[in-house]
Amino acid sequence: MSTANEYQALNDTVISNGFCVGCGACAVPEESPFHMALNEYGQYQAVLPADRVFARTSFDIEKVCPFGSGSASEDQIGKDLFEEHCSYDSQVGYYQQAYAGYVTEGTFRERGSSGGMGTWILNELLAKGYVDHVINVRSDVGGSVDSNLLFGYTISSSLEETQSGGKSRYYPIELSRVLQKVRSTPGRYAVIGLPCFIKSVRLLQRQDPLLAERIRFCAGLVCGHLKSTRYADSLAWQMGIAPEKLESIDFRVKNPEAPANRYSTSVTSDDRHEVVPTNKLFGTDWGAGAFKYKACDFCDDVFAETADIVLGDAWLPDYVEDSQGTNIIVTRHPDIQEVIENARNEGRLVLDDITIAQAIQSQDAGLRHRKVAISYRLFREHRKGSWVPTKRVAPSKTLKPRYEQKRQRLRVDLRILSHNAFVTALKRNDFEAYLNSMLPVYREYKKHSSSLMKRSLLLFKRIVKKFVRVVPGVQR
């Protein structure tokens, strides 16, 4: 049973140090003193009111938080769930099979961000009677913390409801309200979410037999990081729609005349609709991390390692030219594996078997940032004397190549600056105030990144030349 000291411990470690990702897990247990609220930066955060600190709950509240002290790691959870029927890779976690492909039936691919597999698998589980309901993110939020939010978790029970939850939502969401509904509404559920959100569901299931029984499947999304509401606001503002006027946004509009990674952004207000290529908008450089949660810089799970299936974009040369989009799929649950193979045999899916190395290659940049460079970011927090969550890698002041360290520092600077500068811009009602703060740092980041790439290429050429000199029979 959690006590006031344990509530305060979670507040003083995870929340006070900026590691709350806003998943809402700590607010799910009955009698939990925590609730979810948006902060001034447009991020969901857990809040511990002073008058609720002496509430009592049977949950060990720190162990339901994906960043909490003592909570099970992705490796521990994955081993318990998947070890018997899966292989293991340190980059991907446990895996049964990896694919690249797309949905051919219906409008799943047309209405999806990529190959349509995310919505399709949820609907297939629903249609085949594996589950009664799907927990997904939709624009018809209903009952969210803030009625002005564009997206939120809700429960879908039909194809149309499930499909309305398609597409990528680079937007904050939280699980507490929808999981409280699951606890009060019998049925079998599937849930889809980002890696840390799926981990929080698994942590709740370890303490809550009801959620363990009712949530039958977890689908995960390959993740770069989570954005605040200000990311959507910033894109709309650049396209002529002020943040308070923004009514809807589509982050991934496919361009039939361009590769899959050259999509557009669409925004609407009550009297305006604009569509602009995403790479023409400032702040959309994913590596720079504008409006990123701090917690995302301290998460080392890219492939949703605790999910029964994980889906992402096939950013591989063989697939990226297809403007309609192609998914990377990694399966871990035998039932989902069977559902996918049956549909492929019936011609409803077009899938290529790929190696786990190809799956890793498709997310190379994200894995290097999240799996490798995290050790350096942990070291910098330790050096400041800050509390940090326990991760699967140890803090290290060494990061190779050495000049990558500066890029990591600039990324942290851009993350922090983006939140503060945008609040200033909102107060002044002047988007230029945001740009004027961000551009000098971003230009330095791009200049350093370009220099780093040139150095890496020169190093690669030296290695190749050395290799050619020592291999017998190779003509120069």
What keyword list fits this structure?
15 strands; 8-stranded mixed sheet; alpha+beta; 3 domains; 3-stranded antiparallel sheet; disordered C terminus; 16% strand; single chain
Describe the structure in your own words.
- This protein is of the alpha+beta class and 476 residues long.
- It folds into three domains: 4-227 and 292-365, no CATH class; 229-288, no CATH class; 399-470.
- 38% of the residues lie in helices and 16% in strands.
- It contains 15 helices and 15 strands.
- It has helices at 4-15, 74-82, 108-111, 117-127, 159-163, 176-184, 195-207, 209-214, 229-238, 334-345, 356-362, 364-372, 374-383, 404-428, 431-470; strands at residues 35-38, 44-47, 87-89, 93-95, 97-103, 133-138, 152-156, 189-193, 215-221, 248-253, 264-268, 273-277, 309-313, 327-331, 349-353.
- The strands form four sheets. The chain has an eight-stranded mixed beta sheet, sandwiched between helices. A three-stranded antiparallel beta sheet has the order 10-11-12, covered by helices on one side. Strands 1-2 form a two-stranded antiparallel ribbon.
- The longest helix is centred in the last third of the chain and has 40 residues, at 431-470.
- The protein is globular.
- The protein starts with a helix and ends in a 6-residue tail after the last helix.
- Residues 466-476 have low confidence and may be disordered.
